[in-house]
Amino acid sequence: MNLLAAGHDSGMIVFKLERERPAFSVTADSVFYVKDRFLRTFDYSTQKDTQLIPIRRPGANSLNQAPRSLSYSPTESAVLVCSDTDGGSYELYVVPKDSHGRGDSVQEAKRGVGGSAVFVARNRFAVLEKSTNQVLVKNLKNEIVKKSLLPIATDAIFYAGTGNLLCRAEDRVVIFDLQQRIILGDLQTSFVRYVVWSQDMESVALLSKHSIIIADKKLAHRCTLHETIRVKSGAWDDNGVFIYTTLTHIKYCLPNGDSGIIKTLDVPVYVTKIFGNTIFCLERDGKNRPIIIDSTEYVFKLSLLRKRYDQVMSMIKNSELCGQAMIAYLQQKGFPQVALYFVKDERTRFNLALESGNIEKALESAKKIDEKDHWYRLGVEALRQGNAGIVEYAYQKTKNFERLSFHYLITGNLDKLSKMMKIAEVKNDVMGQFHDALYLGDIRERVKILENVGHLPLAYITASVHGLHDIAERLAAELGDNVPSLPEGRKPSLLIPPNPVLSAGDWPLLMVSKGIFEGGLDDTGRDADEDYEEAADADWGEGLDIADVDNLQNGDISAVLNEEDDDVHPENDEGGWDLEDLDLPPDAETPKAASNARSSVFVAPTLGMPVSQIWVQRSSLAAEHAASGNFDTAMRLLSRQLGIRNFAPLKSQFIDLHMGSHSYLRGFTSAPVISVAIERGWSESASPNVRGPPALIFDFSQLEEKLKAGYKATTAGKFSEALKHFLAILHTIPLIVVETRREVDEVKELVIIAKEYVLALQMELKRREMKDDPIRQQELAAYFTHCTLQLPHTRLALQNAMTVCFKAQNLSTAANFARRLLETNPSNENQARQARQVLQAAERNMKDATQLNYDFRNPFVVCGATYVPIYRGQKDVTCPYCGTHFVLSQQGQLCNVCDLAAVGSDASGLLCSPSQVR
User: Fold this and answer.
1) Which of 704, 743, 789, 901 could be stapled to 793 by a disulfide with Cβ–Cβ 3.0 to 4.6 Å?
2) 917 and 620 in contact (C-beta within 8 Å)?
3) Cα–Cα distance between 557 and 501 in angstroms, integer?
4) What is the dihedral of CA 658, 662, 663, 667, to 10 degrees?
């Protein structure tokens, strides 16, 4: 009676009074668990259950206060029993060595309060103190030895190796090193209930309510498995397969995430240990129960996954592995050649044989099925493999004379092609006969066909063009006045196919060693010498019975094509060798696959990873992703690193990077060009197996040249041209790659320089547009002087602002600019003289005629969008790429300076060198 139901108007709620999962801890050869207020142990080798010690005074239990977890230290024979009593508590027991089998010695436990408690060393255990989010390391005397603050808000801790803890939060788990106080691994998960480590501590299974996450010892994710019903328990077997239980099944999970059902359960059980085919479990009443399972299925799949093909072949021979599920699995995983040996149905065998390219098995099945569609598909696959004999045989079986004629043409078999023309004549197939005559280049036959069907003008023209004057004269006499005239001045071309140099057979195949599944599992034994027969002389028989058809009359086709496919050969009355026919079974007259194809099917080498993909995997630099042609990831990197949202200005750079990092070689006329990746820093001594980074067309020296050109245009007053140069620098820097940290600093400094000039030039161009607003002109001229420019340009900006303000009678402001200009010690005497004159004139009347939004005494930066000052202390937002400041209303807008990034967006910063990620 562990369930309680409470009904209400709209339904019912079921409560569980007591926790049903026994608390247990597994050691090498035994499991310690709690049952009926006693600590017990079960030995796996002898299957003996022993009561050790009472763990709590009788009557001390209250509802739902049973032990939740148990941790055991084998060297000290110490046991930690944790429960939810008092909001979380633990009891420490030391099991006397002489208590085995007695279980009546009562000892006082050492108790303490804590959310979780686990052993982390031989004589040390860790206790979670939730209130302070720290872990207390204690000795066996229950004395605090060490305190460590946990890196995340932890609600439970689990063992993760000596000195390590696995800390669980609501949505993640981390491995925490108590000695170094660092995080060794981190993984986002759903709420984890149980943690199961493999014996070698290399793998861990994190069990949630409806999912299982498999990870390695550093919490690197391997796979996730989802279940529709609750996951109850699990354990690792000796092969590295995780076996787990749900409410109703025992299941397995392979390292790649493939899963399946092993056994159906009547009642829920909790797996404690797995030895071979035996699973040891605890039932809800605390009884140990061994369950025998059949591990063949998952061991077979694991062998396929790990490419242990010798073991796979042995299991196929010795096991009864079958069923549509296994066949579908093998097809899905790319092993149709293995699934072929599980199938008895000929149609399924035929499909699997075609999928795996096993033309032998496909031919065997096609002969047994003997349907037109299957022969057609066999012919298509044989043509793809270049197996001319089977192609011919398949076309013969389907009576596909058009394809058969063309097949004889492309293989150069003119003898059989001429027989096909005779067969077409016998069948009254005029078009087929004419096509065969075209293929053979038989002019007289073509004229004869045209004449027989009444096309005398065409017959005359054909004979005339090809020089058959005797036939042409006879046809001209028949046509009389209707003789067609040939075009004058035109030279006719002869429609005669080239003569075959060699009558081709099967395509040559490489002689390679036979794969483990090729022949090793065949039912029929073959001699070793047969594996290396010469395929060129393979006898395919005469399945079509293309006999001597010269003397046949039209319509007399029965001797050529027997509708029942009887192997009846016409008798030849002439002499010959007088060899008697052998009484052979019917299969002897059907073709076999070419022996070199059968014995040594060439398995093409696995396609290597493209160089562009290697570049993407090894790099976090956007320029190298763009060079590889992977523009999507390049844009995502720039968005994450620099907050870039507008990629239109970078389109041409992306294309140039990709084109510049590849060269293109011409192949054959009909073949596509070959793309060759160009690597940065390649040399002849470099290893061919080590790929370098892509060669990039942009480098820092180019930016320096653009900077000089921008300076020169600014000095000359060509502000629009200068603005283009500095914007080009800002649009190139995100796709630049440098080698050293010093160069990284120079690139970042160049961003600031280009940003200052772009902002200054934009304000100056804006000022020149506002001729009707003298106040705004003065303000923009004043702001121009506060941009960080080269000293000659700063002097020119100060002189310009001084002149504009002096003309507008803002003498006080003009005097400030004159004073600042003189402080720069201008080398140009005209600038110095003009500044002194302005100062003298302003001293007589140090006033401003108009009020400007400009206070040179209060430090400020200029907004890149509104061109207003943002004084010190005012809140602002910045561009994550160029660093330009903006007023708060520009949050989320596109930066007006760089025209790339979104103002105020989060970004990790410029990444332009491999040295930044090492």
Assistant:
1) 789
2) yes
3) 33
4) -100
